[in-house]
């Protein structure tokens, strides 16, 4: 059965409050947490941006069964990949079998905080690929070095604290080339909500890469992050989307926008119709159940849902009792 997870928006809530929501989610049938790794919120209204690695350590200690990981960490700018490897190995050792490492190529909002040149997308992809190669070396527990790279250097070193099993490496992508590379080189894929046609294409490319590498894609994690807005009335759900998550109504790449204030200026142009086919906004629980079911049927193993409003407690309780139990297993 597909795991329905809780997308923990560290951009929106104080870390202590978000821990309370996550433990509540575990009690109400949510099976995992995808935690945002941000240095800044998307827009100032969201109001927070705690350090996700500190927060996940607390999450692991306060929950019992949930799997969890960052959605996603960029191992190329704020962090050297060796630091990401050490952090992931430690978390996996603390919570055996529960932690996964979600990685991506980065966004200027979070990664450009130290200034310098912000590279083009294909360069950021190459940097992420090289960073992942370093992380995989260190996950073996053997002495490793990286002195022939284009973007990174690492002297002879090993990780001293390791889990019994390395954390699976999942890569976030919405593009076919990276999806195929991920299938071949990594353990699983993360992708944001999109049309069924696009998602089917991405999963297909992921499967092609996995099979070319001699792996069975059916056994590899396939995760979806899905934003939605549910409230007791349509007007409230729409206002929550416009106020709290205008970035969900921006139908263009956002990786080069550098500040919450710049996002806020763009957000002034967002209207209700901009969310069409991008995010379900509805008070009707059946609308949300149908949307989730189609992604279950598509073959995703985990779907991490983010209700964009502040009504988190009500959302967790209602979806836990009236939506998650109504989902059917995928028929293959």
What does this structure look like?
The strands form 2 sheets. Strands 1, 2, 3, 4, 7, 8, 9, 10 and 11 form a 9-stranded parallel β-sheet that branches. A two-stranded antiparallel sheet has the order 5-6. The chain contains 11 helices and 11 strands. The chain has a single domain (3-326), classed as Luciferase-like domain (TIM Barrel, Alpha-Beta Barrel). Strand 7, helix 6 and strand 8 form a beta-alpha-beta unit. It has 332 residues and is of the alpha/beta class. It has helices at residues 15-27, 52-62, 81-94, 108-111, 121-139, 176-185, 196-212, 234-244, 260-267, 285-298, 312-322, and strands spanning 3-8, 32-35, 67-70, 101-103, 144-146, 154-157, 169-172, 188-192, 222-229, 280-281, 302-307.
What topology emerges from the helices and strands here?
Layout: E1 3-8, H1 15-27, E2 32-35, H2 52-62, E3 67-70, H3 81-94, E4 101-103, H4 108-111, H5 121-139, E5 144-146, E6 154-157, E7 169-172, H6 176-185, E8 188-192, H7 196-212, E9 222-229, H8 234-244, H9 260-267, E10 280-281, H10 285-298, E11 302-307, H11 312-322
Parallel strand pairs: 1-2, 1-11, 2-3, 4-7, 7-8, 8-9, 9-10, 9-11
Antiparallel strand pairs: 5-6
Helix pairs in contact: 1-2, 3-5, 6-7
Short description, anyone?
With 332 residues, the protein is α/β, with parallel strands linked by helices.
Helix content: 25-40%
Q: Which runs of at least 5 residues are low in confidence (pLDDT < 50)?
A: none
**H/I helix tally:** 11
Q: Let me know the largest β-sheet.
A: 9 strands, parallel
Q: Look up the CATH topology.
A: TIM Barrel
Second CATH tier, the architecture: Alpha-Beta Barrel
Number of strands: 11
Strand-pairing-aware structural class: alpha/beta
Give the number of domains: 1
pLDDT averaged residue by residue: 97
Cα gyration radius (Å): 19 Å
Terminal CA distance reads 12 Å
Following the backbone from N to C, one meets helices and strands in this order, namely EHEHEHEHHEEEHEHEHHEHEH
Beta strand %: 5-15%
Anisotropy-based shape: globular
